[in-house]
Amino acid sequence: MEFNLSAESKLMIKAARDFAEQTIEPIAAKIDEDDAIPDDLLPKFAKAKMLGMMIPKEYGGTGSTALNMILITEELAKTASAVYWSLALNNSVAETICHWGSDNQKELFIPPLCDGSNYAAMAFTEPATGSDPAAITSTAHSDADYYVLNGTKRFITNGKRKGYGIFYAKDETEKVTAFVVDKSSDGYTCSKPWALMGLGGQGLVDVFLKNVRVPKANILGEKGKGFNVLLRWIAGERVQQMAFMLGMGQACLEESLKYAKERIVKGRPMTHMQGFQWMLSEMHASIEACRWWTYRVASKQDDGDEIQVDSAALKIFVVPTIQEVARKALQIHGSYGYCKNYKIERLYRTIAHAGVTGSSTEIQKTLVGSSLARS
Amino acid sequence: MPSNNNKSNKNRELWVFIEQKYGAPIRVSLELLGKGCILADKLGADVAAIFVGQKITNQAQELIYYGADKVIIADDRLAIDYRTEVYTDIIVTQALKRKPEILLFGATCIGRDLAPRVAGRLSTGCTADCTQLDIDQGKGLIVAGKPFLGRNVMADIICPHHRPQVVTVRPGVMELPAQDKTRRGELVHADVDFKEEDIKVKILDTIKSETVGVNLENAEKIVAGGMGLGDAAGFELLKELADLLGAEMGATSPPVDAGWISHERQIGQTGKVIRPRLYIACGISGAIQHYVGMINSELIVAINKNPKAEIFDFADYGIVDDLYEIVPEIIDELKKLKRAPSH
Amino acid sequence: MDIVICIKEVPETTNVPWDPKKGTLIREGIPGILNPNDKNAIEAALQLTEKYGGVVTAISMGPTQTDDALREALSLGVDNAVLLTDRHLAGADTLATSYTLYLAVKKIGRFDLVLCGKESADGVTAQVGPQLAEFLDIPQLTYATNIEIIKGNFVRIKQKLEDVYRELESPLPALITVEREINNPRIPPMDHIMEAYRDKQVMVWTADDLGGQMERFGLKGSPTQCLKVYTQRIKKGKVQILEGDGFMVAKELVQILRKRNLT
Question: Of A113, A94, A96, A54, which is closest to residue A298 (Cα–Cα)?
Answer without folding.
Answer: A54
